[in-house]
Amino acid sequence: MKKTFLAFISLAIALALFTYSNTEAKAAKMTLGYTTGDTASYNSLTKFHKYLNSIATDTFAFDKSGNLIGEAPNKQLTFAKKNKINKTWAVISNYNDAISDFDGDLANRVMTIKTSRKHFIDQLVKLAKKHSFYGVNIDFEAVNPKDRSKYSSLIQDVSAALKKKKIKTMVSVPAKSADDKGDDWSWPYDYAKIGKYADYVQVMTYDEHGIWGEPGSVASTKWIKSSLQFAVKKIKPNKVVMGIPSYGNDWDLTDQTNGTVKQWSEINTLQKKLKAKPAYDKKTGSMTFSYVDKNKHKHVVWYENEKTIQTKSHLVKQYKIAGVSVYALGHESASFWKAIQAGIK
Fold first, then answer.
1. According to the model, what pLDDT value does residue 3 have?
2. What is the dihedral of CA 195, 196, 197, 201, to 10 degrees?
């Protein structure tokens, strides 16, 4: 009788542990850091890897024939795997060095020219297998509006080819709160179709404002919420990944061509140097401060701090999405990652 009772207790404990383990696994949110393959990215990875369970190497592009360009950051990949970050992603973008920008026409070639399309997809499979990538992250930006359906079709074929080799597909898309044909930047991305084919959709919920335009929050709370509300209507929430910026922007109001992107550490250094008094903007849920430089130019800086990062990261829970992605590793602090960790818990 005692043996039977003890066996029952052991079984109950085992089942409880199994249930707890599964619950924990299901509860774990993706925390992905984009790396650019440089020394700063590597140093950040080594310092803050305990906060990450995924990394994406933003080091690959392609040419008009569908040949992949770029190198795998082997040092970073080796470190990640040694530290049990097994979900590594190869980012493939349509960035064209010749024009120093994303190239919609280049993207069009691998969508429409059969030989380039096939070669491009074959190269993705080979790359992922060669470096044991967990998945491929397609990041085509500035896609031509006329290519909306063609892009969805390409994602369908890429996903199918990768799936055969047990390789995941993630697609980065601009944030939007509606399908607007008049918006050339976001219209080309059919969330519903892309979300159907891809395993994850990384919504770039940053750059609401940039140095190319009027000053404002990089990612206001209202804007992020509107973007996520639209995303989860079109895509299964457990496929959606929310973007978080590790940078802010500094606008020169006197000379509008002199605006700069400021990394997390740069903003903190600038703030201390100037003895600036940052203000929390209730409307956007972001931080801002102003200053006058040595040339007597007036500047305004918009950025996030630990409090706003934590609050915005918590939207992962509110919308029950897959997790967060940070662009990019290189200049953060431990407090930055602790804020994200606290937000998604």
1. 45
2. 10
